What we know:
The structure holds two protein chains of two kinds. By secondary structure, chain A is mostly beta strands. Chain A is built from no helices and eleven strands. The relative contact order of chain A is 0.34. In chain B, strands 2, 4, 5, 6, 9, 10 and 11 form a seven-stranded mixed beta sheet that branches. In chain B, strands 1-3-8-7 form a four-stranded antiparallel beta sheet, with no helix packed on it. In chain B, 38% of the residues are buried. The A-B interface holds A 1, 32, 34, 36, 42-46, 49-50, 53, 55, 87, 89, 91, 94-101 and B 37, 46-49, 52, 60-64, 96, 104-113.
Amino acid sequence: DIQMTQSPSSMSASLGDTVTINCLASQDIGNYLSWYQQKPGKSPKLMIYGATNLEDGVPSRFSGSRSGSDYSLTINSLGYDDEGIYHCHQYYEYPFTFGSGTKLEIK
Amino acid sequence: QVTLKESGPGILQPSQTLSLTCTFSGFSLSTYGMGVGWIRQPSGKGLEWLANIWWDDDKYYNPSLKNRLTISKDTSNNQAFLKITNVDTADTATYYCARIAMVKGVMDAWGQGASVTVSS
């Protein structure tokens, strides 16, 4: 199975900050990487797919990038609504796998 | 607008079979390139992909659950199903279904989740 190593596991940032969350794939997954945001008691919401494509309706403050097997989610101009858990997900190969999640707290 | 909603028994006993239903609207599982996936999440833990079913009835399973999973669909009624046999307490989780559109390849719309507790 492809392992997705996500970091950090939690982070705290201030309003207006820029933060980056990372995911390292254990083998090549091309651009088959997505990012989800999950709020307490809610289902995950797709934010980025194809490593860099912004899902419809997601603010342009969110962006995804790739460097080899390293994938990043960057959030600019943090707002309170960005608080939640972010999950990376590879859909290159079955079984699909997820990272362990990053809990983002806004100070 | 795409919507999905999971339903299940809520609570069941160890060794029983868990039957989950995903009722959806806004797309059809008879349309080329459409699929439905099942994912679960134990409370306070990460996401685990379980199975996918596609418009052409192709099915894929997570081998970590060995042969306990069966995914199926009813295109006439816009439903997908997941059965998990011989459950134990480790199967306690919130179970989600999600749409997959082959053009994107990802699960782009999720249901609200169904909470399942396995307890004697």
